[in-house]
Amino acid sequence: MTRTRVAIIVFAASVVAAAFPRAAWAECYLENVASPQEIADGWTIHEDFRVVKQVDSAPYERGGPGNWFVDREKTTLPLCSVFDDLGAYSLRSYMLQPVVTKVQVKICQATAGGGSVLFVPADAKPQPSDTAHEVFDSFKRPYAGPCPPVRPVPVPVPRSRNRAGRHAVLKRGPVSWNNDGRRVLRKITRRALNHISPVIS
Predict the structure, then answer these.
(1) I need a labelling partner for 166 at 20 to 30 A (CA). Which of 36, 47, 140, 173 fits?
(2) Omega before 21 cis (within 30°)?
(3) pLDDT of residue 14
(4) What is the rounded distance in angstroms from the CA atom of residue 34 to the CA atom of residue 52?
(5) What is the pLDDT of residue 123?
């Protein structure tokens, strides 16, 4: 392996290490799939971290009115692409275990007038347009919703149709009884005794 290729691999690994904690990601090793002779002949390995899933929480305010954030859980799949001495892709390429990270992402910025506008990071790059051959995943697009975000509508809790006065619960042990239940039980008992009494006599 030439010094230039070694430098490129080391630089790529340092960039990934800055984006992912050391304990959260694993490294690709060419020694796992290539012999020392193949490595000496110029076999190389390239690390590629693909985002395969992204889930955002409900937006919430923090740091004053108008500043909105989401908690973003991202699943990244490390791909170890291997190339032979001729530069051809090798079927010895492999994948590592997925890496799940959770970060706070700002989506809306407060204004001096008390409003809220879309937050654009200083290092943001223009999003390429979709083509007939490639459509970008939804999680690779920046937030494009309203600012402030629409608050989620609370789900109403259904109320009981029974009146509290008629169903005052009296608990005894693991079984719960109410006043109506006791009256119904007495009626059933009296009817059963009336049917049994003629048979016994």
Answers:
(1) 173
(2) no
(3) 42
(4) 28
(5) 76
